[in-house]
Amino acid sequence: MAAAVIAQLIPKLHSLASSESGYYIGRHLWFGLVVLYGMVVYVAHISWAHIKEDFICSENITLPCLITCFGKRFPIPIMGTWYFFYFIFIALFCLIEVFMALLREEQVKVMKSMVSMMSLAKDLEGGLMVPNKELSISWKKSILNLHREKSLLLLYLLYTLLQVIFQGIFLFILLFRQRPLVKQGIIHCSTNSCPGPYFCLIRGSMEKEMSIYILATLSIFIIILGTSFLIYSIYHYLLNNPNISKMQSS
């Protein structure tokens, strides 16, 4: 089921990021991370697909008590949390695509009006009209300069910061909320409705723990990459802005 959803989702996301303009830093790299994220989640969920069958208790336990002990041991949905943060990752990617497209469309309208006025002035002076192909190239070049377009730059910085924050939260949940659930060996279960005591364990705990480490490694990689993008963008486009340097020198 998860593989079918990911397989249908990837071509649609690729159509979003397939433009050659690349009007923000690492556009294709973030799309690659979307695909990689989906593959990692799919691989990691395999060891958790039959978690209820892998949770076994004493032989004399009844089915209602087994369900109760399972719910007590896993109060936090494991795979549901993974899918939730994967959805956030994709949603942020799609949102920046939409907002970037809207901002670029506004920039294109402004550039069209400016180029039309310049072309009209040249035509009145006896010059030739600028070809459409050259105009389209000039529009693309003009709107890809993040040194001048602070709205695009700030939007990209906000997007990267949100990705880093959510991945940091996800990493904390993985290592300090989910990993302890499978790291412990035999579990003692005793409730009011099922006094027991029952002794339960999880089969394949090593595989399940490794799947958590795989997701944690991916989250760490995204955090490092996003932080690097933030530092580079702030330094290159804000602190090392050539326009500001020219103003200061003048």
Task: Give a verbal description of the structure.
The structure is a single chain. The protein is mainly α. It is built from nine helices and three strands. The chain has a three-stranded antiparallel beta sheet with strand order 1-3-2. A hairpin with an 8-residue loop joins strand 2 and strand 3 (198-202). The longest helix has 47 residues, at 78-124. It is elongated. The termini are far apart. The model is unreliable at 137-143 and 244-250 (pLDDT under 50). InterPro entries: Connexin_N, Connexin_N_sf. Residues 23-233 form the Connexin N-terminal domain. Pfam families: Connexin. Keywords: Membrane, Transmembrane, Transmembrane helix. The chain crosses the membrane at residues 29-48, 82-103, 153-176, 212-235.
Task: List the topology elements.
Elements: H1 2-17, H2 27-46, H3 51-54, E1 55-56, H4 63-73, H5 78-124, H6 132-143, H7 150-183, E2 187-189, E3 198-202, H8 205-239, H9 242-249
Antiparallel strand pairs: 1-3, 2-3
Keywords: Membrane, Transmembrane, Transmembrane helix
Domain Connexin N-terminal: 23-233
Transmembrane segments: 29-48, 82-103, 153-176, 212-235
